[in-house]
Design a protein that fits this description.
Blueprint: H1 6-49, H2 55-75, H3 80-101, H4 110-129, H5 133-155, H6 184-203, H7 210-228, E1 235-239, E2 242-245, H8 273-288, H9 290-300, H10 308-329, H11 344-347, H12 352-355, H13 358-366, H14 369-375, H15 380-392, H16 408-422, H17 438-457
Antiparallel strand pairs: 1-2
Protein name: Glycosyl hydrolase family 76
Length: about 450
């Protein structure tokens, strides 16, 4: 047997290595091309279904579109189809402003203002990039002068009387005819809207901006006090380092201000994906402005004994626990796909059409670069698996995404997994949304896909 010379062996290794590098580069390019193809096809379908007449859902679904489009532009800044997407969105935003102004604000719910306020901030960001300053300013005023002001004046509980935790935000109507309840989503929305407005105002040196920081701080105090009351399990632990925030805080004792099981109908153990993402988003904001927060609190609430290092640790700990909670309990071990927690209150006929979007909302925030860095878990393989499931289960003739994108056998295994971890679960996997208007359903389902696509693009 002849000996292979060292020179030939090195040549062989060199060729093999370069072939492997070239193959990897081709595979990576193919993956990026596939992601862009998915993105354009998904947006084109969204253009066909976004213009529906449901106030809060329209606000939320378009926010998903804006965050997705921003990610696409950052990824493919010179791509003609992506650039056309930005132009299309400008026209859609003009229509959205007309749509919003058709409504009497007094007839709307506190949650509605949160969704539209957040969407308006992202609309402004989008429009400023295009040089559409006048239209951008209209959305800024919509977010601050209308949405935030209404939530502050009509939904926030300014009295110190509620037990065991004072203040917080109700999900009643703007006219005050229905007070509603202090559930997680309405409080997270006020927290997040306040923190996001403040960050923009700080960056642009907007006058009178401390009122937004004040409200964000008040909401942090409300959440933090509840989290410290471990006997009520509002931040319910799954393990020592994993937890999820329940749909609302409940404290059933005489004189408690947190006993309502309505609006929407509540059941023990109810937890919703969307809440997790928004709370992480708000806490991420607060960490980014903690120097300003320290100065403000010491000047305005000197008796609170605010310590920036303690706050930093508390906020980071909550974010990390929620991140681990999502990875542990809201991802199926059997297929790595992100799931909605199996709670009848989310899936059932009363409000299934409202909670359907939760998986997308959660990843709109957990998929953002700033939030990802704080999570202490890696959800990239779960985003990839979820996107593939959404894409594979779509109506291929229209590229319309579906409410369910996982199979029954795996769903049953996931429900049992969740039951073991959370201690309670409902045997439910199909969204009861038969009474939901078809265009509304199409728009919401498409927005879930856009949210997951946005998270995938940022990986």
């Amino acid at each position: 047997m002849r000996k292979i010379s060292l020179e030939k062996l090195l040549i062989f290794i060199f060729i093999a290595f370069n072939t492997l590098v070239a193959f990897s580069a081709c595979a990576e390019k193919e993956k990026k091309d596939e992601l862009k193809t998915m993105s354009i096809a998904s947006f084109n379908r969204f253009k066909e279904v976004w213009d529906f007449n449901d106030f809060w859902k329209r606000g939320n679904t378009f926010d998903a579109c804006l965050v997705f489009a921003d990610a696409a532009l950052m990824k493919w800044p010179n791509d003609p189809e992506v650039l056309q997407m930005q132009q299309d969105i400008k026209g859609m935003l003009e229509e959205n402003l007309v749509f919003f102004n058709r409504f009497d604000p007094g007839s709307l719910w506190a949650d509605d203002f949160g969704w539209w306020g957040l969407q308006a901030l992202n609309a402004r960001k989008h429009l400023l990039k295009m040089g559409e300053n006048e239209l951008a300013d209209k959305f800024w005023k919509l977010s601050t002068d209308l949405c935030w002001e209404y939530k502050k004046k009509t939904a926030y509980d300014h009295s110190p009387d509620a037990l065991p935790v004072a203040h917080g935000c109700r999900n009643g109507d703007a006219n005050g005819q229905s007070l509603g309840v202090k559930n997680t989503v309405t409080n997270a929305l006020l927290f997040l809207l306040s923190s996001r407005i403040y960050r923009v105002a700080l960056e642009e040196n907007v006058a009178d901006r401390d009122k937004y920081l004040d409200m964000a701080y008040r909401q942090w105090v409300w959440f933090e006090k509840w989290f410290q009351l471990e006997e009520y399990e509002y931040l319910k632990k799954i393990s020592e380092d994993a937890a999820l925030v329940q749909e609302r805080p409940m404290a059933e004792f005489e004189g408690s201000g947190y006993i309502e099981k309505i609006h929407p109908p509540w059941a023990k153990g109810w937890v919703w994906t969307g809440d997790q993402g928004m709370i992480v988003g708000a806490l991420s904001d607060m960490l980014s402005v903690q120097d300003e927060l320290e100065v403000f609190v010491k000047a305005n609430y000197p008796n609170d004994g605010f310590d920036k290092s303690i706050f930093d640790n508390q906020a980071r700990t909550v974010i990390a626990m929620i991140g681990q909670g999502v990875k542990t309990a809201l991802v199926a071990q059997v297929d790595n796909i992100i799931r909605e927690a199996p709670c009848y209150s989310s899936f059932g006929p009363n409000h299934g059409n409202d909670y359907l979007a939760g998986r997308g909302i959660m990843m709109r925030y957990l998929g953002a670069m700033e939030e990802k860095a704080l999570l202490a878990v890696d959800l990239s393989e779960n985003v990839t698996a979820t996107l593939q499931a959404i894409w594979n289960s779509r109506d291929k003739s229209s590229n319309q995404f579906q409410p369910e994108f996982t199979n029954e056998a795996n769903d049953k295994m996931y429900i049992e997994q969740f039951r073991i971890q959370w201690g309670i679960a409902d045997d439910i996997r199909v969204w009861d949304i038969k009474n939901m208007k078809e265009m509304n359903k199409f728009g919401v389902c498409q927005s879930i896909g856009l949210d997951i696509l946005g998270a995938a693009i940022k990986q």
